[in-house]
Amino acid sequence: MLLVLLLLLPILELFVFVQVAGSFGFLNALFGAVAATVVGIWLVKQQGLGVLRRANEKVARGDAPTDELVNGTLLLVAGILLLAPGFVTGAVGLLLLLPPVRALLRGSLRRRFASGPIVIGHATRFSGTFGPGAGFPGAGFPGGGFPPTRRGDVLDADSWEEPPTDPDRPELP
Question: Are 145 and 129 in contact (CB under 8 A)?
Fold first, then answer.
């Protein structure tokens, strides 16, 4: 679905630009697209600073700034859309700058995140010559690599290294 959108979006943007240029003239259409980008980015900056201020106030009170984090993410998406050239992406970016639109999306995003983690892909088992235990019989999983997983599993791991101890060098505090 995303691939189709990425392929059709430039065609749609070009079509809309040609229609606007046909109605208002090429230079006016170009100026309009650039002006919408500049004004939109300025608005994203202003609203982003407001979201950051409100998030800091909530953190100072000991509250979790969940609404502010979602608003900040939506403002980031708005900024990206406004940087992309075109009237369609600019219009969607400008819509995301409206607080009622963000509130509507915030509710649906909150419901989506409350249903559990979002898994983008799934892990697979590697049995090649790379991965943990690869090339060493009995190390890691049979054949090396990662454990087999089911679709939708979430793997979480931490890693750290212990510094080598040198008897001739004292430990740092």
Answer: no
Percent of the residues in the chain that have a pLDDT greater than 90, as a whole number: 38
The answer to whether residues 124 and 93 touch, using CB atoms and an 8 Å cutoff, is no
Most confident range, picked from 138-142, 144-148, 165-169? 165-169
Nearest CA to 79 out of 96, 55, 102 is that of 96
- Tell me the C-alpha to C-alpha distance, in Å, between residue 53 and each of 68, 97, 124, 152: 9, 17, 43, 37
Q: What is the DSSP string of 8-64?
A: HHHHHHHHHHHHHHHHH-HHHHHHHHHHHHHHHHHHHHHHHHHHHHHHHHHHHHT--
- CB of 117 closer than 8 Å to CB of 143: no
Torsional class of 142: left (φ above 0), alpha (ψ -120 to 50), beta (otherwise): beta
Q: Please, are residues 78 and 93 in contact by the beta-carbon 8 Å criterion?
A: yes
Q: Chain centroid to CA 55: how far? A: 19
pLDDT, tens digit, 9 for 90 and up, residues 76-114: 999 999 988 889 999 999 999 999 999 999 888 877 777
Q: Which phi-psi region, left, alpha or beta, contains residue 138 (left: φ > 0; alpha: ψ -120 to 50)? A: left
